[in-house]
Amino acid sequence: MAVAPDRESGRGGVPFAMKDPLHVPRERYYDRAFFELERERLWPHVWQMACRLEEIPASGDFVEYEICDQSIIVVRQADGSIGAFFNACRHRATELAKGDGRFPGGQIVCPFHGWRWNLDGSSSFVFGAEGFAPECLDPDDLRLRECLVDTWGGCVWINMDPDAPPLLDGLAPVPAMLDPLGVENMRVWWWKEVILDANWKLAQEAFLEGYHTMQTHPQIRRGPDDEAPPQLLAYETYARGHSSFRNGTQRVKMTPDQSLELSRIFWEGQDAMTLEKDIRVMASVRDHPDAAQSFPRLAVDAIYEDAAARGIPIAPYGPAMKLWGGEVFAFPNYFVLPQFANALCYRSRPYGDDPERCRFEVWSLTTYPEGEEPGPPQLQGRYAKDDTEHWGLIPRQDFSNIERQQRGLHSRSFEQLRLATEWERAISNMHESLDRHLER
Ligand code: FES
Ligand SMILES: [Fe+2]
């Protein structure tokens, strides 16, 4: 049933609303009014991954998180807890901090007239206070305005809506799925970003399905023929827009050499999920007498033995490891793709005020031996989508289609996306959850 998108008859007054789970109106990716509705009704009301916890290890460390026209400063408190504040001076609105760094002496100082705040947001100093009427100096009014803030999965999450549900309720079932995989213990191996000329949703949809693997990533094709690969993944969608996929029960039988070769292609192609150290460990059981029969199991055993020997706090092996090689998506814009003691993470958000640009970040995480965790991570850089020096083949292949897709949306011939019922259901699940936010 093809239904033409219609601004007027949108559900709950939402323009270009989803009418069925099989089609996505193209305007959702570039229409100005739709983008502004997201800015007003989605982003200020949803839990967002604001930064990695290890970015702010010490009291006074801060990170600025920007989303659309809002800026939030996330600050490590003297007692080790985390605070999050709207980044606007209570005097004349100047942004108090930019980027990241440390507030010296535990004081947040406005660069304009020097008003100050303690790390907990309470006002500590007003320069020339005698020049202000008492009603302009009410301590409660001078307090920095807070956001909800909580931590999970090695990250700080913020929510601008004081009435939002608690973080773990908002993210459910994602934490329960990923906690047994030890994501809390992972640290940044590298962190990079790309600016794409595409809507933030379109960019991340390239990572919500494995259906594109056959054509986009032929080197990691796992199936014996062109028909099998999409069926190798099992997709699940959850309330609140979250979703996951994992390897299905159907498996392609591979020799140890084929397995190692595929792992090597993944490592070289993205330097995430499977790292060079894992390949070395897996290769050590290639000539094991049982390798022909049970190489995957032997390889995992070897990774556990290696972790134990090196003091790496890898999570105990259990049923959750079925998610290795799969993906968990936390609505609206955060992904975790776990494998062994590693994970690949993505975050997609609008860039500037342009519905057709986004900032897409990529983290490769791993678990370090206890006591050998690295210092605070730095964004390594912002690299062009086709930069062969800084992006592996796999992300470059993914990025290569996204801007072409955004351009294609504007074709006079095109009305709406047509989605596979199972393999692309995480995309419609995300859009339907988005509409529930926009309808409010
Ligand atoms: S604007 Fe911040 S102190 Fe004046
Ligand atoms: Fe891909």
Q: pLDDT below 50 for ≥5 consecutive residues: which ranges?
A: 1-9
Separation, N- and C-terminal Cα atoms: 27 Å
The order of strands across the largest sheet is: 13-14-15-16-17-18-12-19
At CATH's second level, what is the architecture of the largest domain?
A: Alpha-Beta Complex
Radius of gyration: 23 Å
Number of strands: 20
Fraction of residues in H or I helices: 10-25%
Please, how many domains?
Answer: 2
Tally the helices: 11
pLDDT averaged over residues: 94
Find the CATH topology of the largest domain: Naphthalene 1,2-dioxygenase Alpha Subunit, Chain A, domain 1
CATH first level of the largest domain: Alpha Beta
Biggest pleated sheet: 8 strands, mixed
Bound molecules: FE2/S2 (inorganic) cluster, fe (ii) ion
The helix-and-strand class reads alpha+beta
Strand content: 15-25%
Instruction: Indicate the overall shape.
Output: globular
